[in-house]
Task: structure prediction
Amino acid sequence: MSICTDLPNKMKTIKCPNKRCKHEWNYSGTARFYATCPICRYKVWIDWTAEQLEVLEQIKELEEEMKSEQGVGSNNKEDEV
Ligand SMILES: [Zn+2]
Result:
């Protein structure tokens, strides 16, 4: 059984502001603020919509759940606020 985290809502087209690059790609990561351009490593601000941020939060929760299911024996003591 696998949880589908591949929500189309979180897909975002990002354009690299670097004048020498201008690469455009579909970002599907879960970073809250910055995406890294795969070509020039430029850090690009992601302007998520409120809806997309909600989806991100849900994905992160799912990931945490999956981690704690797998990681039996290792206590997760990281408090992410
Ligand atoms: Zn770039």
